[in-house]
Design a protein that fits this description.
Number of helices: 12
Structural class: alpha/beta
Strand order of the largest sheet: 4-3-5-6
Strand content: 15-25%
C-alpha cells in the first residue's frame, strides 16, 4: 500500500492506494466518530463489493446501513439525493454517523453533498471504485449534483476523512469506463507535469493492460498532483481551475447529449481535443504537441471527435460553466505540454472555428 496526504491543516486526510483495501477495517476505524456508518452505493457496485465492505466493518463491531441507489450520471440529481436523506432519517442517523461512498464519481459526489448538508454536516469517507474517481473526483472535496440546465451547478466543497483507492476494483471495471478514467490521468500530465505525460506516452499500453505496477504509479502520481493543487487552492479561486482542462467543452457535450450518453471522461477527452485545437489556432501549442496529445488519447481508446452541436449551441451551454466571470467564458488552454493557463483572452473567432471544425 502507498499513502499520501491532502494537506489542509486540521482537515488533512490520507489517500491509501493498494490492493484488497476494502477488506481491511483497520484503515477505516480510526476515522469513525462512533461505530456506525451508512454505506452509499449503487445497483452495479453493490453486488460486487457491498458484502465485502459490510463484512469487514461488522467483523470490527461497526453497525452498517446500506443505501443502494440507481446507477448512472442520469441519476445524479436532487431526486436521488433525497433518497439518501430519506434513508438517513428513517434510520435515525446522527451527526456521529459516517457516510461511506462506495462507487464511482456519481456516488462520491452524491454522498459527499449529502454528508455536507445532512444535519449541517456529518463525516464521510470515499472508497472510489472507478479509475476516474480514484484519480480525480474522490480527492479534493468537490461534491454536488447536476441540474437540468447545467452539470455540477449545485454543490459544496466538503472534504472526506479518508480516501481508499482499492486497485482490485478496477478488474471489474468495463473497458469503456477505464478509458474514461484515463482522460483524467492524462489531464495531469497536460496541465502541470510534463514528465508524467512522457511517462504515460511510454507506458500507456501497460496501463490499458491493467499492469499493477503501472496502475499504482499512475494513480499515485495523479493523486499527488491533485493533492498539491487542492492544498494551495481548496475553493478554486485560482490554480485549481486548471484541473478543469477540457471540462467546459466536455460539460456542454454531456448536457447536450443527455447525462450518461457520453461518459464524463469521454466528454472530457473530446473537450481536451477542442482545447488543444483552439490552443494550436492561437499559436500557443505546436502541431507536433497537438498530435502527441491526440495520439495519447487515442491509445487510451478515447474519442477524438466531439459531437457537431454547432457553435451557437456550444456557446449557449458553455455560458452555464462555473468559471464564467462577468459574462465571459473562461477556458483552460495549453501553452505547451505540461503548461496550462486559465484565460478569457482568446480570439472569439478562433473559438468559433474550433466549435465548428
Amino acid at each position: 500500500m502507498q499513502t499520501l496526504k491532502v494537506e489542509l491543516a486540521d482537515r488533512s486526510y490520507p489517500i491509501h492506494i493498494g490492493r484488497n483495501l476494502i477488506s481491511d477495517p483497520n484503515l477505516i476505524l480510526p476515522h469513525l466518530k462512533r461505530k456506525s456508518v451508512a454505506v452509499v452505493t449503487n445497483t452495479t457496485v453493490a453486488p460486487l463489493y457491498l458484502d465485502k465492505l459490510t463484512h469487514a466493518l461488522e467483523s470490527a463491531g461497526v453497525k452498517v446501513i446500506a443505501i443502494v441507489l440507481p446507477d448512472g450520471e442520469a441519476h445524479k440529481n436532487a431526486q436521488t439525493l433525497s433518497l439518501i436523506y430519506d434513508a438517513l432519517m428513517q434510520n435515525r442517523c446522527e451527526r456521529s454517523t459516517t457516510l461511506i461512498a462506495l462507487g464511482g464519481g456519481v456516488i462520491g459526489d452524491l454522498t459527499g453533498y449529502a454528508a455536507a448538508t445532512y444535519l449541517r454536516g456529518v463525516p464521510f469517507i470515499q472508497i472510489p471504485t472507478t479509475l476516474l474517481s480514484q484519480v480525480d473526483s474522490s480527492v479534493g472535496g468537490k461534491t454536488g449534483i447536476n441540474h437540468p440546465l447545467g452539470k455540477n451547478m449545485i454543490g459544496a466543497f466538503y472534504q472526506p476523512q479518508l480516501v481508499l483507492a482499492d486497485i482490485d476494483t478496477l478488474e471489474t471495471l468495463p473497458a469503456r469506463e477505464f478509458s474514461a478514467g484515463m482522460a483524467e490521468v492524462i489531464k495531469y500530465g497536460l496541465i502541470r507535469d510534463v514528465k508524467f505525460f512522457e511517462w504515460l506516452e511510454a507506458n500507456v499500453s501497460q496501463l490499458m493492460a491493467l499492469d499493477e505496477t503501472a496502475l499504482t504509479y499512475a494513480i499515485y502520481r495523479s493523486c499527488q498532483n491533485k493533492a498539491e493543487v487542492v492544498a494551495r487552492d481548496e475553493h478554486e479561486n485560482g490554480e485549481r481551475a486548471l484541473l478543469n482542462l477540457g471540462h467546459t467543452f466536455g460539460h456542454a457535450i454531456e448536457n447536450a447529449m443527455g447525462y450518461g450518453v457520453w461518459l464524463h471522461g469521454e466528454a472530457v477527452a473530446a473537450g481536451t481535443v477542442m482545447a488543444a485545437d483552439l490552443s494550436t489556432r492561437m499559436g500557443w501549442l505546436t502541431a507536433d504537441e497537438m498530435q502527441r496529445i491526440y495520439a495519447l488519447l487515442s491509445a487510451a481508446n478515447l474519442p477524438l471527435d466531439p459531437p457537431k452541436l454547432g457553435a451557437e449551441k456550444y456557446l449557449e451551454l458553455m455560458q452555464l460553466d462555473k468559471k464564467v466571470a462577468d459574462g465571459k467564458i473562461r477556458l483552460i488552454l495549453q501553452q505547451g505540454i505540461g503548461q496550462s493557463v486559465i484565460t478569457s483572452d482568446y480570439d472569439a473567432e478562433k473559438l468559433r472555428e474550433t466549435l465548428t471544425r
